[in-house]
Design a protein that fits this description.
Radius of gyration: 11 Å
Oligomer: single chain
Largest sheet: 4 strands, antiparallel
Number of helices: 2
Helix content: 10-25%
Shape: globular
Distance between the termini: 10 Å
Order of helices and strands: EHHEEE
Structural class: alpha+beta
Strand content: 5-15%
Length: about 70
């Protein structure tokens, strides 16, 4: 199972702006599949800026901080 990760705030490069949350997570954690991230997103295990995000297709256009549980 995925360990708990704490990532510092960072700015996406331009290719990640407007991309789906599950796509961005796969880009950052290349050892996991998009379907894996979709499952943990739907299980309320992904936090963005300390708020649970449970919509895999959610798109972000700003600096964000991830925490996966």
């Amino acid at each position: 199972m995925l360990k708990k990760y704490h990532l510092s705030s960072f700015v996406f490069n331009s290719e990640l702006f407007g991309k789906r949350l599950d796509y961005v997570l796969v880009y950052l954690f290349k050892n996991y599949s998009r379907s894996f991230f979709k499952k943990i997103i739907l299980k309320n295990q992904v936090y963005v800026n300390n708020i649970i995000v449970n919509i895999p297709k959610k798109k972000f256009l700003m600096e964000i901080k991830f925490m996966l549980k």
